[in-house]
Amino acid sequence: MPAEYALNNVWIGLGMVIILFAIFYAVGYFSSRKTASDEDFYAAGFSIGPVTNGLGMAATWASLATFLGVIALILRLQVPFVYLWIQWAISIPLLTLLYGTSLRRMKAFTPASFIRQRYGKPSTIVIVCWMILIMIMYALGQMVGLGQAFELLFGVPYNIAIIVAGLATVGFITIGGMYGATYNAAFQMVVMTIAMIVPMGAIMKAMGSSGWWFPPLAYGDMVPDMIKNIPTFFDMKYDFRWYFALIPAFTLGPVALPHLAMKVFTSSSVKSARWAVVWFALFLGLLFSGTYVVGFAGNYFTATTGRIIEKADQTILILNVFYNPTLVAAFVMGGAIAAGLSTIGGNLMAIAGLVGSDLLGIIAPNMESAKKMKWGYAALGLGGLAAVLMAFNPPRFLVTSILWAFGLLATTATPAILLGVWWKEANKLALIISSMVCGIIFIVISPHVLPSICVGSGLVAALGMSGGMVTIPLSFAMFIILSIAFNRMPALKAYAPTLADKQVIDRIHGWGPDYDESRYNGIKWPLIISAVCVAVFIWGLQPW
Amino acid sequence: MKEKIYKKEIRITIIFTVLLLLTGHSASIFVLFPGLQQGTLWGFPIQYIIPILLGWFGIAAVCLAMTLVCNKFDDEMAEYVKTLAPETDTSTENTQK
To answer: Membrane-spanning regions, if any (chain B) (predicted)?
Structure first.
C-alpha cells in the first residue's frame, strides 16, 4: 500500500484501539457476573429486550466485510454488488418469520437443538459438522479483516497483526458469554454506525457534495459527475439469472446461520423477538446505506483524482486517511474493528453452542451443565484459534470465504430447518443423504477445491452463486422426494418421522396440546416446490 | 376454528415471505422489466435508489406490519389454546407478553 495512505501517527491508532478494547473487556467482565448457567452462557438467560437485541442482531450481521470487503467489491463490480448486499437485510426477518419464533418457543440454544429434537442424533451430527465448518469460514473472513485493520493501524506485519487481534478478541468474548457478546454487539453497532456515517459527511463535503449533511442518501448531486467519469457505474450489467441466483445462494444461506438465529433465541419472548427485528431493519439499513455511499465515494475518488486504490479492501480507511484528520481516521478503523469483533463474537458463541450444547448433548447427554459450559469455552477458544491459523493464508477478497460458506449452508442446513419446521413428512435419512450429497457437490463444483470441475465461471463461481443455484434447489428437491419415498418403504420405517417428532412441529407452532396429524403434512405443495426446484436446478446448470 | 387459524398462519407466512423477498430483491424487477429503468429520484437513477430505499425503509415497514400481525395472531392462537382441555402445554410461550 502506498505510504501516503498510512495513519501518520501510530500512537493515536493505538490509543483508539486500547480504549475500545478496554470497554469491550469491561462489558464482558460485568456481563460474566450474570452468567450462572448454560442458559445464561448460550442465550443470555432468554432475557434481552428488543432495542438491545435489534442492535445486537445488526452488529452481528454487519461484520467487518461491511467496512472492507463489500466496499472492495462495489469498487470492482459497482452497482450490482450494492444490489447483492441489500438483500442481506431480509435474512433475520425471514429467519424470524419462518422458524425463529417457533424455535424460541422451545427455548433452543441453536437451530441444531431443534434438529436434534426433530430428526434425532445422527442427523444432528451431520448438520452440526457443516455448521461448525461454516462458522469457522465465517470467522476466518472477520479475522482476515481484523488483521488488515491492525496492519494499517500499527504498521506491523500482517501475520503479527492476526495473532494480536485474534488473541485479544477471543479473550473478551470468552469472558462475557452471550450476555457480554450481546451487550458488546449493541455498543459496537453504535460505534460502527457513527464511524461509517459521520466521517463520510466530511469526505463528501471535501468532494463537493451538497448532501454531506446526510451521507447515506443525499449524494444525488454527485451522480452527473460520476456518470461523466464512469458511464457504466449504474448499469445493472448482468442478466436476470445473476440477480435471481442471489436468492438461493445468499438469501437462503444466512437464514440458517446459527449466530443470527441465536440472537432471536436470546429475546425475552417471541413477541419481543419480532420487535427486535423491526429495530434491526432500521439500524442495519442505516449502516448498509452508509456502506453504499463509501463504495460510491471510492469509485468517485479513483475516477476524479486519478489515484489508484491498490488494496480495495481498505477503501474506507484510505478515504479517511486522505480526507480526514488522523484522529477521525483512527476512529473509523476502530469502527471497522468493532464490526469484526461483533461478528466473530457471534460466530464463536455459535461454535460454543454447537459443540458445548448440541454435540455434547448427544455424545455425553448426562454431563453436568457446568462441565458442558467448560467444553463450550474450550470450543470457543479452539474455533478462534482455527480462524487465526487459517487467516495466515487467506483468500484474495475477504468476503469470498464468507459468501462461499453461505452457499454451503443453504445447501446443507436450510432445507433441514425449514422443512423440519413446516413439514411433518421430512425424513431423517432423506435429510442426511440430501445434506451430505449436495454439500459435497457444492464443494466440488466451486472453483476452490477442484478448479477443473466448475459450474459457472469467474466471480459467480468463486462466490458460490452458480454452485448454489445448482445444489440448493437440488437439496430441497432431493430432500422432499426422498422423504416421500422413504416414508412409504416398510424397510426404512425406522427413519420415518415418529409421532413424537410430529408433535414437536405442532408444539413449536403454538398449538399446545392440540395435535392434528393432517396439519403441516400435505404432499401436494412439497411436490410443487420440488418441481420448481428441479427447474431452477436445470437453469443453473446452463453455461454462464 | 382451528382450521381457520391454521390457514391464517400459512397465509400470513406466505404473504410476509413474498413481501420480504420483493423488498430485498427489488433490483431484479428492474432487470426483468428494463422499461422501468427511467427517471430519477433525489438525483439518483430510479433503479439505484428504489432498491436502496426498499432495502431499508421497505423492509422495516414490512417487519413492522409482520410484528403487529404475527403478535396479534399469537394472541388468537393463545385464545384458542385456552379453550382446550385444562392440561395446556406450558412449554409454549403464546401467553407471554
So the answer is: 12-36, 48-70
Task: Evaluate if residue A348 carries a pLDDT over 90.
Answer: no
Rounded Cα distance between A16 and A375, Å, is: 34
Within a domain: B17: yes
Binary contact (A90, B20; C-beta < 8 A): yes
Check A240 against B28: CB less than 8 A apart.
yes
- Is A473's pLDDT higher than 80? yes
SS3 A9: coil
The pLDDT tens digits of the residues spanning A308-342 come to 888 788 889 889 988 999 889 888 888 888 888 87
**pLDDT, tens only, A6-28:** 677 778 888 888 898 888 888 88
Mind spelling out the 3-state secondary structure of A84-112?
HHHHHHHHHHHHHHHHHHHHHHCCCCCHH
Structural domains counted in chain B: 1
**Partner residues linked to B45 by β-bridges:** B40
Question: Between chains, do B89 and A513 touch, taking CB under 8 Å as contact?
Answer: yes
Q: In chain B, what residues touch A217 (CB-CB under 8 Å)?
A: 42, 49, 52-53
Which residue does chain B place closest to A220, by CA atoms? B43
Task: Give residues with Cβ within 8 angstroms of B29, minimum separation 6.
Answer: B22, B36
N- to C-terminal Cα separation, chain A: 35
Residues of A in contact with B25 (CB under 8 A): 87, 243, 246-247, 251
Say if B86 falls within a structural domain. Answer: no
For residue A303, give the C-alpha cell.
475516477
Three-class secondary structure of residue B41 per DSSP: strand
pLDDT tens column, A406-461: 999 999 999 999 999 999 999 999 999 999 999 999 999 988 878 888 898 888 88
Provide the shortest C-alpha distance from residue A290 to chain B (in Å).
Answer: 11
CA distance linking residue A451 with residue A440, whole number of Å: 15
Question: Quick check: B97 and A79 CB within 8 A?
Answer: no
Query: Where is A206: in which H helix or E strand?
Result: helix A158-207
- Chain B residue with CA closest to A246: the answer is B25
Residue A260 — pLDDT band, cuts 50, 70, 90?
confident
Domain that holds residue B49: 2-81
Q: Report yes or no on B20 lying in a domain.
A: yes
Pairs of CB atoms within 8 A across A/B: 165
Examine residue B36 and state whether it is found in any structural domain, yes or no. yes
Backbone region of residue B45 per phi and psi (left: phi > 0; alpha: psi in -120 to 50; beta: other values): beta
pLDDT tens-place string over residues A60-82: 888 777 888 889 889 888 999 99
Q: Check pLDDT > 90 for residue A497.
A: yes
